[in-house]
Model the fold of this input.
Amino acid sequence: MRVSIKLKFSLFLALLLILALSVLSFFVLRGVDRNQQAQIERYLAQHVKTVNLRVKQTYYTGTRLEPQEFMKQRGRQLAVELAGFTGLEVTLYDAQGRLTGSSAQGKLSKPGDDGRSEVQDSLAYALQNKIAYQQAGDSLLYLAPLQGPEQQMGVVQLQYSLKDSLSFQQTLKNLFLTTGLSVLLLSFMIGYLYFNRAAVAISRLKLAAEEIRKAHYIAAPPVKRTDELGELAEGIYYMSREIESSIAAKDEERCKLELAVQKLQALEQQQKQYIGNISHEFKTPLTSIKAYVDLLNMYDDDPKLLLDAKVNIAKETQRLYEMVEKVLQLTALEKYDFESQAELLEVGEELREVCGRMNGKAERFGLTLTLDTTVSHIWMDRESFVHIFINLLDNAIKYNVPQGTVHIHNETRDKRVWITIRDTGIGIPAESRAKIFEPFYTVNRDRSRQSGGTGLGLSLVRKLVEKQNGTIELLDIEGGGSAFRLSFPAES
Done:
């Protein structure tokens, strides 16, 4: 079957235009969809931060309850209140995945009702301190961890309506369809006329070739290169340039989408790190306050202890207040790192103050804190210094043995200040030494659970030390116990 070159050109042009419009439409629609998804995730992530702050504020300002009991008693009220803050339907689950409150009328008749069947898998994933979401009809269910005083106390579910997004996407698809068809028809008609002229030129070349095959030589070229064939070459170049432009636009869009995904991943990681840092920042002063409260319960008739407890509890309470203020400021500014305010510190004096804060806890555990200091100065943020050594002393006390000791020593050499904290505790096994500074890693999970450890303390300590241009290492020592050695640039 003989097919004319004019028909081949027409079919080729039609397929090429359809392919170009299809590829362009696909990537544009895909880009719009991913951009909408990214905006929705950022929007919901901001609401999750607001929810966590509000829940923590309610938890700390109200009657102190266990997290599970708090969620059971206040879940419904909190869900309704948070729905008013966010403008979204809010559902709260406790740490066991039980529904404790919902802003939707009629969804929860009483605390403990099971309303989680439709989000069973996503809820199980969110209970692992991760973020999950799923689409249910024309709504997006966004489940995020609900942080408690020491660990995750449950899950918050935000229901976001996708009606506007779906309507916008459908409108965009209809626009692409109608406009694409119009452009396709118009382009095809113009191209057909153009290729028709090329077909005439090729027909003339074919006749000339037939004449040459018959040995009827021609006196002049049948087609001048500055005429039809030249225009055909320009047309091919034009189409090539247009295709290249379409591919370049597609690659640019893909790069933008990849960058958006990377930014979302970085934001998610930064948010998790931010929540962990806040939890440990609050835990440090609360550890000292709790120790003095326990001592007062045991020795409430000791005037010296009462005075010492009042001073230190007031100091730690002020520190907690300042941290809350700093957290609120960071939330307003959308920052994730505490600002450092470096100042000249005398190491011995600061270590004595830190030991004074932790001495009550050491006495409660029957331990002895000893301090061997020399006069040395470093340039460092005071809050970071306190956080580092309270965490290290807290670990040395929690993982010590009865009647044990914790010894702190500092010296200056090689233009650096070296500080060593050594305890007579249970020690760190050789197989765990390489992982001890990793986030969430604990040597003994049962012991850490009993003592309230989360595995973030040493990881945060190392980050704070490195941020202050310092180093920290776990020393090899003979016998029981463990020892950490830190160093910072000395100030003359």
